[in-house]
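Notes from hallway chat w/ T.B., transcribed later so I don't forget. T.B. wanted the structure written out for a chain they're using in a teaching module, and asked if we could keep both sequence and structure tokens in one place. Agreed to drop them here.
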Amino acid sequence: MTSAASQIVVPGSRAAGLIAQLGLRPHPEGGHYAELFRSPHALPAHGGTRAAVTAIWYLLTAGQCSRWHLVRSDEIWNWYEGGDLELLRCPGPGQPVQVHRLGPVDDAGRTPQAVVPAGTWQAARPVGDHALVGCTVAPGFDFADFSLLQPSSDVAGWLRSQADPRLVDG
């Protein structure tokens, strides 16, 4: 898996086309994104005001990951195209890591939507060549409410022992 600093996208691939067509740019946690919507309505949240809701496109390609991070608002992930996406969630140390597989609905439990409650550690990785998803956050996303897991933290040690360590270290 690659860090945000070394995004691998094969020229001429479907992922490269999506990056160009959707105007995606590198995201600090890994992958590429573009904000689609930021509500003009504001709500009091997290000691300030936030947009009522925000929505982004988010693309991960083979070898990339969304490293463990925490958002202080609820987040809804929707799968749109490509291979499946594994979304990992963990409320905190001592709690089990839950894996939700986003993709077309099937009898194995795969669904196109998953919710990450506010304050839950989360990470993601594509299963195939790429996965295009949408993330909707309410109250709206603000980088002030985003915490990327610090590899030297106690939480990082716990998550390394429970899931793929590359999701901690990039």
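Follow-up for T.B.: The domain at 27-169 is CATH 2.60.120.10 (Jelly Rolls). Might be a good example for the class.
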